[in-house]
Amino acid sequence: MCDAHLRGPSGIITSPNFPIQYDNNAHCVWIITALNPAKVRLPESGVSESCGQVPVRERSIHLLIPNPFHHNPTPQNCLPPSLVIKLAFEEFDLERGYDTLTVGDGGQDGDQKTVLYILTGTSVPDLIVSTHHQMWLLFQSDSSGSSLGFKASYEEIEQGSCGDPGIPAYGQREGSRFRHGDTLEFECQPAFELVGQKSITCQKNNQWSAKKPGCVCK
Q1: Is the pTM of this model over 0.90?
Q2: What's the per-residue H, E or C state across the chain?
Q3: What top-level class would CATH report for the domain 1-37+81-159?
Q4: N or C: the chain end with fewer CB closer than 10 Å?
Q5: Highest CATH level, class, for 161-218
């Protein structure tokens, strides 16, 4: 679907006509919003509750005040809402340099100040994580030539995480935490050589310090 407002907790986005070639002069916008950001989670039980709080105003960080009409005590492990969007690509094939998919933070599509990546070509991009509870995507093609397009999945994750980058084929990974400051180490099976960074670290902008490495035959 072209031009859509999407809500969590997860879903699929594809270029027009996918897996058939997209049209020339395409212009598509998707805005993804985390589902009900006013809700919060109890980390131990996994249950969502309002915690007796109501939002003051909606921003990238939600300021909360106690609800005076709620008489139940607020659980100590009840945390304020903090959801961001993770975007992971399964297939990607755009006419290099002419057709682009721009990914940005927030809900204002086309705002150059919030652009995270401008994607083109045939290499499958690494996963992208927003810093806000919204993410926008803008797909544009020129007047000639087209390719198969792209397929991506989006998912809500907790803020302060870079998301699971996965494990390379014929490789293995040490580390299973994806929070800010966490580091993952990669190595390949015998007869395969590591291509890329051996270790990557989750940064405060919710992006890994490098792409997930690959393993190729020696």
Answers
A1: no
A2: CCCEEEECCEEEEECCCCCCCCCCCCEEEEEEECCCCCCEECCCCCCEECCCEEECCCCCCCCEEECCCCCCCCCCCCCCCCEEEEEEEEEEECCCCCCEEEEEECCCCCCHHHEEEEECCCCCCCCEECCCCEEEEEEECCCCCCCCEEEEEEEEEECCECCCCCCCCCEEEECCCCECCCEEEEEECCCEEEECCCEEEECCCCCECCCCCEEEEC
A3: mainly beta
A4: C
A5: mainly beta
Checking phi first, is residue 116 left (phi over 0); if not, alpha (psi -120 to 50) or beta?
Answer: alpha
Q: Which own/partner contact pairs does 60-68 have at CB distance under 8 Å and 24+ positions apart?
A: 60/106, 60/131, 60/132, 60/133, 62/37, 62/38
Average pLDDT score over residue span 40-61: 39
